[in-house]
Write a structure and sequence with these properties.
The protein is mainly α and about 475 residues long. Helix content is about 50%, strand content about 10%. It is built from 16 helices and ten strands. The protein has helices at about 35-40, 45-55, 55-70, 85-100, 100-110, 110-115, 185-210, 225-240, 265-285, 295-330, 350-365, 370-375, 400-405, 410-440, 445-455, 460-485; strands spanning about 75, 115-125, 130-140, 145, 150-155, 160-165, 170-175, 215-220, 255, 340-345. The strands form four sheets. The chain has a three-stranded antiparallel β-sheet. A three-stranded antiparallel β-sheet has the order 4-5-6, with no helix packed on it. The longest helix has about 40 residues, at about 295-330. It is flat and about 135 Å long. It starts with about 35 loop residues before the first helix and ends with a helix.
Length: about 475
């Protein structure tokens, strides 16, 4: 018999959160300390990572990564369909437009390098509305997190930090392999050693260039030379390194020893290897920054970089949506579903390609709705001289007689107009066959291939009969005009 005992209710709240006294917490007083061993070794001082940032390859790749995000268009989407939801979205977009959202985003994205970012929200009261007068990204090393995840501002008088008020700061963390790491784990952690090794490798490279860039000077003196003679020879050797010409006493010799290249002198290869390592850390690939890759390889690597860019955009937007966007909505539009800010990371279709496709579909009997035209090409379009439906046309039993009745119309345009009407049913039959095919294919290329396959089987008998009759009438009409003339 099954046990019908009601299971115990779940434990509410956290019981494994890191706190003071935890063996692995690493807390000093009220402040949580980073788990990053480099930062812990210097008390959480970010200066070691600021040196990493000065490397030209780090700076270049980070700029590429940040600019890839800020170059994307952005939008503010309503949280729902109610008028108040749309009003909250319009109000937020208006505020962000006034604050230069791209500039703010670019500075906040440095949090991906350091592990976390902190921005202060400056408010102003406009009637009964709370508005953002500015968003200022602060130096993260001025702030720490408490064991309760509260944001604290460090001061000389309060080394344990002053707890900042709620809804005043926008923060996010990046990296880290667990939620106990309140400071995240920035790219700088993985970039430190490649930059350190590269910097020292270049330093040794400069020493090698200085040492082996010119021959070593050797002076020879006679065994009977006095100390003054030896000093005179040494001065001449030093002068030989810089002067065009020198003089030495007779009996002394100066020779030049050419340096021989030895293994281990490929310092530039080592530096390039470290640059590639830096690029992989920042962009997760190398082929969008360096020459020598094939087009197919570069396209694959570009897709990888696009994934990184989309992740960065989502990180910045999601943290803003969970903080400032929600707070402003709750203050200014109570009851509204908070709006969301997003970067448009999907690559839009080329409009020329879309227009060509729409044209082909129209020729096949399909017409875009006004809503789709506005969505694809933007607002501001309306139909001009929209065609009217002539209604179904009936092909008479005696097509030649029908054309003959209108033979008194002596222009080719008149005949062409009649032919359009009479041929419409036959054309519709062929279009119906193609329309059925369109519903069975997944893309235009497959449609083109299938059309070639079914072309020999298309039933064009009715259309051929109408065309035959039309050509006969046109020929007779032309003969009649010549006779009358």
């Amino acid at each position: 018999m099954a046990d019908k005992t009601t299971p115990p209710k779940p434990e509410v709240g956290e019981i494994s959160a890191v706190g003071r006294g935890d063996l692995f917490g690493g807390y000093i007083a009220e402040l949580a300390q980073p788990s990053d061993p480099l930062l812990r070794s210097i008390g959480g001082d970010m200066s070691v990572y600021e040196k990493v940032q000065r490397d030209e390859q780090v700076q270049t790749t980070l700029q590429q990564r940040r600019r890839a995000v800020t170059s994307l268009d952005w939008s503010v989407e309503p949280g729902g369909d109610a008028p108040i939801d749309k009003a909250a979205a319009n109000d937020l977009k208006e505020q962000l437009d006034a604050l230069s959202w791209d500039r703010i985003t670019d500075k906040m994205l440095w949090g991906i390098f350091y592990g976390y970012a902190v921005a202060e929200l400056l408010y102003e009261i406009d009637g009964n509305r709370v508005r953002l007068s500015d968003i200022r990204v602060r130096d993260r090393k001025r702030f720490r997190f408490g064991h309760d995840r509260s944001l604290r501002l460090l001061t000389g008088a309060r080394p344990e930090g002053i707890v900042m008020p709620d809804r005043k700061f926008w923060t996010f963390t990046a990296g880290g392999d667990n939620d106990d790491e309140v400071y995240g784990r920035g790219l700088a952690y993985w970039l430190y050693w490649p930059v350190y090794l590269k910097r020292n490798g270049v330093k040794f490279w400069a020493i090698v260039l200085e040492k082996f860039g010119q021959p070593t000077t050797i002076g020879k003196y006679d065994a009977s030379a006095t100390p003054e003679d030896r000093q005179r020879l040494l001065s001449a050797i030093r002068a030989a390194a810089t002067d065009v010409g020198i003089i030495i006493p007779k009996g002394m010799e100066i020779e030049f020893l050419e340096a021989q290249r030895r293994a281990g002198g490929d310092h530039h290869i080592f530096a390039e290897y470290m640059d590639a390592a830096i690029t992989k850390v920042v962009l997760s690939q190398t082929m969008t920054t360096e020459d020598g890759s094939s087009r197919s390889q570069a396209e694959v690597h570009l897709d990888v970089r696009d994934d990184v860019v989309e992740s960065d955009a989502d990180l910045a937007c999601e943290s803003f949506n969970a903080g400032p966007a929600r707070w402003l909505s709750e203050w200014n539009f109570p009851g509204a579903i908070p709006p969301r800010v997003w970067r448009l990371t999907d690559n839009p279709e080329d409009l020329n390609t879309v227009a060509e496709r729409d044209k082909k579909l129209h020729e096949m009997g399909y017409q875009s709705t006004p809503a789709r035209v506005a969505e694809t090409y933007g607002p501001g379009y309306e139909r001009v001289n929209a065609p009217t439906d002539p209604g179904p046309a009936v092909v008479p039993d005696d097509a030649e007689a029908t054309f003959a009745e209108g033979a008194d119309r002596d222009t080719a345009d008149d005949l062409a107009d009649q032919l359009d009407v009479v041929a419409a049913p036959a054309m519709d039959d062929m279009i119906d066959q193609i329309r059925e095919l369109v519903g069975d294919v997944s893309d235009l290329q497959e449609l083109a291939d299938r059309l070639i396959e079914i072309y020999p089987d298309l039933d064009d008998g009715a259309l051929a009969e109408v065309m035959r009759a039309g050509l006969t009438v046109a020929d007779l009409s032309g003969r009649a005009e010549v006779s009358d003339g």
